[in-house]
Amino acid sequence: MLAAVLLLVGVVLLSVDTRIGNRQIDAQLAQVAAQVDDVDDPPPGMAIGIATAAGHVALSAHAPAPTAELTTSPPGYSTVRSGGGEYRVLVVERSGRRIAVLVDKPRGNRVGSVFWKRC
Q1: Are the C-beta atoms of residues 87 and 102 closer than 8 Å to each other?
Q2: Tens of pLDDT along 40-82?
Q3: Which residue in 43, 97, 100, 113 could disulfide with 70, CB within 3.0 to 4.6 Å?
Q4: Contact (Cβ atoms closer than 8 angstroms) between residue 62 and residue 52
Q5: Cα–chain center distance at 43
Q6: Cβ contacts of residue 18 below 8 Å, gap of 6+?
Q7: CA angle 110-115-119, nearest 5°?
């Protein structure tokens, strides 16, 4: 009985931690997407892709493979997997451009992970 209660408490705590982590990631993505003008200097752990109405796509250095394709995705949040990594993505339309901002999600999406220590 005690083991079942401890397991339940563990699952609840993990769920709460994951939700908090996702909210923090989403807030960071929104902040970057609102301020980004080019792809030259993304924040640590992030990648940026910008597509113009004419179809020209610019990508930040070391952007993961799906970045260019994500600039054609509908606006909003999503999660994609590529090359063994998992990325949280926000796509927005601003000033006639489609902007995709990606962040490499830490394993297990833990708030105390290396990602949060770097930012």
Answers
A1: yes
A2: 989 998 999 999 989 899 999 989 989 999 999 999 999 999 8
A3: 100
A4: no
A5: 12
A6: 109
A7: 125
CA distance 29 to 89: 7
Which residue matches tokens 């909003």?
Answer: 76
Per residue in 94-103, pLDDT tens?
Answer: 989 999 999 9
Tallying the residues shown for the chain, one arrives at 119
119 to 63, 113, 114: CA distances (angstroms)? 18, 11, 9
Q: How many CB atoms lie within 10 A of CB 114?
A: 11
Matching residue, tokens 């833990």: 110
